[in-house]
Amino acid sequence: MRTHGKLTKWNEQRGFGFIEPATGRAEIFVHITAFPSDGIRPKIGETISFEIDQRGDGKQRAVRVMRPGGSNPIHRRDHRKPSPAWHAPLASLASLAVIASMGWYGYAKIATSHIAADSVSAQPASITQRTTSIESTFTCDGRKHCSQMTSCAEATYFIQHCPDTQMDGDNDGSPCESQWCSDGWGY
What we know:
By secondary structure, the chain is α+β, with helices and mostly antiparallel strands. The chain folds into 3 domains: about 1-65, CATH 2.40.50.140; about 85-120; about 125-185, no CATH class. The protein contains 3 helices and 5 strands, in the order βββββααα. The protein has helices spanning about 85-120, 125-135, 150-160; strands spanning about 1-10, 15-20, 30, 45-55, 60-65. The longest helix is centred in the middle third of the chain and has 35 residues, at about 85-120. The model has no long low-confidence stretch (mean pLDDT about 80).
């Protein structure tokens, strides 16, 4: 049975209060979850309509609270407990830690890329130009053995860029040592 009354007491921090029924009976307990989830906070003195629920311990409580003139939305119980006061500062601190670690990671990546770029630019231009011109001269064409090569530069290109080559018998990274590259990685 629906009845009317006024909200006479309200504890915003704890989310409950008491209603004085229009019939003059004793005050009835009401919890924030009994109010519609429309975003409007309960106000002392407001007239509301509600149903009374008899709990197992004999106490009464207001349920399915409605405000006059309001629609009757489907009531969803909100079982979340109010967040303790320390949650907001802790969440802010955690956010700052995440942002700081992302910044540090980004800084480390940029610093590393600059160091790598500096070391590449420190090489003499002649080596870079020679490598570029050598690479543009050769193409992978299926040759795999030292006997098929015509120079150390060609063998070096093939071992670095072409699959399944068989030109580095001692696996030291220098191809065709007994035939073309006797002094190591010569061009």
